[in-house]
Amino acid sequence: MFDQLQFIPHHIPGAIQGKYKFSNGWSISVVSGLYGSGLYGVIPEGTYEVAIYRPNGHMTEDVIGWNTKDEVSAMMKVIHQL
């Protein structure tokens, strides 16, 4: 499911962000940056920071850091089934 994310430049220089809204109203934001960017994901390491949003637009708890593409895909599959 990771391939469904279309990454664009993030407002943090050198960082990227991909968003996806599921048909059930939930959405996900996946970001990654350069070393020292302050994000919990680093492009050269292939890790990503994930924020999950409920249908009401509120984020669930806190971001989930240091995820691989496979881990992001697994989260997306679970969200899709909610």
Explain this structure.
With 82 residues, this protein is of the alpha+beta class. It has one domain (2-80). 15% of the residues lie in helices and 32% in strands. The chain has a 5-stranded antiparallel beta sheet with strand order 1-2-3-4-5. The protein is globular, with a radius of gyration of 12 Å. The two termini are 15 Å apart.
List keywords for this structure.
globular, alpha+beta, 1 helix, 5-stranded antiparallel β-sheet, 15% helix, 32% strand, 82 residues
Structural class assignment: alpha+beta
User: How much is the radius of gyration in Å?
Assistant: 12 Å
Percentage of residues in strands = 25-35%
The percent range for helix content is: 10-25%
Inertia-based shape: globular
Tell me the strand order in the biggest sheet: 1-2-3-4-5
What assembly state would you assign to the polypeptide chains in this entry? single chain
Instruction: Let me know the largest β-sheet.
Output: 5 strands, antiparallel
Order of helices and strands: EEEEEH
Instruction: Give the beta-strand count.
Output: 5
Distance between the termini: 15 Å
Mean pLDDT: 97
Count of separate DSSP helical elements: 1
Number of domains: 1
